[in-house]
Structures are given as structure tokens and as C-alpha cells.
Amino acid sequence: MQYFKKIIRYALPYKIYGMLNIICNVFYAAFSGLAFMVLMPLLQVIFKPDAKRITVKPVYQGITKAGEYFNDSMSYFITEIAGEDQSKALVVVILLVICVFFLKNIFGYLAMYFITFLRNGVLKDIRNDLYDKTIHLPLSYFSEKRKGDIMARIGTDVLEIQHSFLSILELLFREPLTIIFTIIFMLTLSLKLTIFVFVFIPISGFVISLIGKSLKRKSDKVQREQGYFLSLLEETLGGLRIIKGFNAESIFNTKFRESTERFNKYSNSLLNRTNLASPTSEFLGIAVISVLLWYGGRLVLVEQTLQGEAFLAFMGLAYNILTPAKAISKASYSVKKGNAAAERVLEIIETEDPLKDKVDAKTLPFFSRDIVFDKISFKYDSDYVLRDFSLSIKKGQTVAFVGQSGSGKSTLANLITRFYDINEGAIKIDGFNLKDVSKASLRAQLGIVTQDAILFNDSVANNLLLGKPDASEEQIVEALKIANAYEFVKELPKGIHTNIGDGGGKLSGGQKQRLSIARAVLKNPPIMILDEATSALDTESEQLVQKAIEQLMQNRTSIVIAHRLSTIQNADNIVVLHKGKIVEQGKHEELLQRKGTYAKLVNMQSLT
Known about the structure:
Helix content is 62%, strand content 10%. By secondary structure, the protein is α/β, with parallel strands linked by helices.
């Protein structure tokens, strides 16, 4: 229940539906008990046709004789309408029984009707919060998590909470109210029998509770395993080309089969334990009913302190406790399962964002002067990737970072976009420390083109509109032309409105990269970050993309992470990195004349 105390806040916007559900459940519970009470006059009419009719309005004499008072009142009411006509009395009683059962079911339906809006609203809001938190958490969080596990939490775990949430409301209101009203009616019929019932119900409840103690642990195993095989499936679909190319089908098949085997074992254990609840509670309930039959039969036949019709009505009421008691036992099991799901969901929602904007975060003004890396140091885990790194980039400059893999080039791009935060030092734009400004205002001034062209399963136009949602079709076409992409886009079946498939799968590598550049062009930011934008392309595609990049960088401040050195010869400043430190910097010709690290890199590439 500890996690549901946190989940309950999601129900507050829908509290009106919760209140209406409670009101309807009160009436449902009252009519549920009353349905058996109105059977008493029916039984009397059928089995005691010669019994004397009540012609004087009965007087209430206290709770201990409330059952007699109710029965006499019903008899008086029937006599007032039907007189001594037995067949007419029977019709009146039957109509009364039908009305009571009709009202019981109407209120039962209305209770479920209102709770539907509450539980689906809670489902929607939890999913929205989960998705919102997912897209705002830093990249470092997802480097430690499996995508499939995140998907399982947003999908199946939230659904489990929804079902459990409904169960807990039944646990708190509907079924307990039904039991309370039923017990009140039972007390009015026979105090001795009711006390007898109370002796056996706690014993039944204790036995049932023993069954469900390990459900949360078993449910947690099921949900974690489901997250694992969803991750495996996502990785398989994303890496099919490699799996097939290396004949690794059997390896992944074995992994998946092992996962589904574990899932099967955990699920069987969980479901068998859950399924034990219903037959156990029913058997214990029937055992209580059997004892009641023996004891109540003695009160009717031997001691003659209880009327036969009252005893039958009491037995109906006693059985009426069984259904809600079974529902409560099922609901308590469901809550234990949901508690495990809620724990996994809240783990994400309650994760603190280390890159969260400060309360007094400033809005970064439009870029006008320089970008300064002031003695920054950064590490992903234990080893520093950058150490005491300092550099100044003036507005309008094109600065290229080169060096071997692992030298810290891409890390600089991640830091200026605040995908990660530095450990020491400061990064400043026009004198503003990036930690002091809002991420939205910072990233509004940045355009990013990465090595892997990240496109979405949507049209060309909608992929470009990510950069500028209010752009017109003319602006989209102009951006495509600048990026050397319009020539192939206009040949597509629906032009800019053509769907490009999952990850842009219907396009070539060069075409996808030019669309990425067009997206950056449309955004028109003052600062461009190009992270090895041409390294994965063939020579022909590289030339087309390079022309697009040159047009993109005109009149902008550009930070270029370069793999192919031929693409950065015109840079204003080439910074050569080695193990997170600057070993050389200058223009292309200057660095070649020094015959240092940069010259060696150029020679190595010219030989390959």
C-alpha cells in the first residue's frame, strides 16, 4: 500500500467521479442487503398462506427486534394493498423483490460507470507524466537502462496499476460497505447467528492472507523479465542486419527463449498463487455456511427461537458476504501485484533530474559575442575525458575539433548542449554560465547535425518542422534547397508529404543526412554543432552533404566535430585533441607546417 499512497494523488483531479462512485456504492450495498430482507414476506406468502395478516401498523421496538419490525411492516404494507387475496399478495411481493434487485443493479452499474472515468483518467495522467519525465531525464540515465524496460513500465506496469487501482477502490468502499450493510441486516434477524459468523470469518481471513504474502515479490520478477525480453526484442529489430550478417540468429534465439522460459516459470508461479484465492475463499465460505446451517437449524427446529423465513433470509445474507469477501481477497492480491508495478513506475517519475533548470534560471539572450570553455573537466564514470580544457570561440567563427577516438571531441558537443553537466569549471555564452540559464533558451539557439541522421516515421515536412513548427511549405522547400535535398524530395510520390519510414528507412544515408541538415537550416540557429556529419557516407554522398554543410555554416558560429579532415580545411581554427587536452590549434596550413599531430593525422588519411 505504500506506493498507492503516492499514486492516489493522480485521482484528485477526478475526485467528483470517486465521490459519485462511493454514493452509488452505498446504495448498491444497502439494496444488496435489502434484497434478501424482502424475501421474508415472499417466503411467508408462499409457505404460510394461512398465517394471520398484520392489519395494525407495527411499532419499532429497538435494533434487537428490527428484523421482526421490518417483516411486520412489509406484511402490513402487503395487506393494505392486497387484503386477503393470496395471489394478489404474491404479485405485490414479487414486484417488490424485482424493484429492489433492479435498484441494486442500477446503482452497481452507475458505480462502475463513474469509476471508469476515474481509473482511465489516472491511467492517462500516469502515462503522460512517465513520458514527460522520460523525455526530460538526461541521456546519462538511459545509458544505464534498457529501452524495453522503460517501454514495459509505460505499457504493462501502468495497466497493472490501473487494474489494481480499481481493485483498491472496491477494497475500500464497495465490498466492505456491502458486508457492513449485510451484517446490520443480519443483526436485526439474529444476534446469536451473527456472533457465530464473526467467530469463523477471522479464521478464514487469516488463511487467505497466508496465501498472498509472496505475491509482490513474484509479480516484480514477472514485470522485470517482461522488460528484459522487450529490450531484447527492440535490440533484435534494430540490429537485424548485423545478426543476419554474423549468422548470430541462434545466439539471440537462445537468449530470447531463456527469457521467455523464465517469464513462463515466474508467471505460472504468480498465476497459480493468485488463482488459489478464489477457491480457497469459496471453500472457507461454504464451510462457514455449513456450520451456520447446523446452528441455525437448531434455533429453528429445536429451540424454536427463530422463524423459518427469517433463517432462510439470514442464510441468504450470510452467502451475500461471501461474494464481497472473495472480491476483497482477489483485490488484496491484485493490490500486491500492482504495488510492484507502482514501485517500478514511481522509480522513474520520482527520479531527480540532475540537469533540472534552477528556480531562478535566466533566459539566454540571442547569441552576440563568444562561447568560452573556462578550465572545464568532465568524466562519464571514473576517468576524466576532459581535464582543465579552455577555449574561446568568437561569433561567426568555424572551429573544428579533431583527434583520435576517445579524445573528447563528441563530449564537447554534449556539454555545450547540456546533455551532460561538467564536473569542474564553466561553459559560458556571452558571459552567461550555462548552468544558470534555462535549457530551452540555450537549445533554441543551437542547431545539431549528428553522425547518425535521426529521423522519425513521418513525412519529410513533419521531420523538418521539429526545428520550426510554424514554418510554411515555402520555407520548408527553401531549407531543402539549401541542404541539396530538394532534388530527390520532389521526386518522392507525395513530395514533402511523403512518409519516409521508420528511422527514414526508405532513404539512402546521404539523403537522410541532407534532411537532417535541412531541419537545422529551417530552425536557423546562430550556433551550429556538426558532430561527424559526413563520416558515415560514401564519397559522392559526402560531397553533396559537404556542399549543404558549407551553405548551412554561412554567417553562423559553427562547432565541427571532424573525422574526415578534408571537410575542415577552411575552418577558422582547428583544435587538435589528445586524451582530453589541446595539443595543437590553428588554421589548416599552419598546422601542416608544424608537422605535428595534425599533420600526421592528415598523412594517415591521405594514405587510406
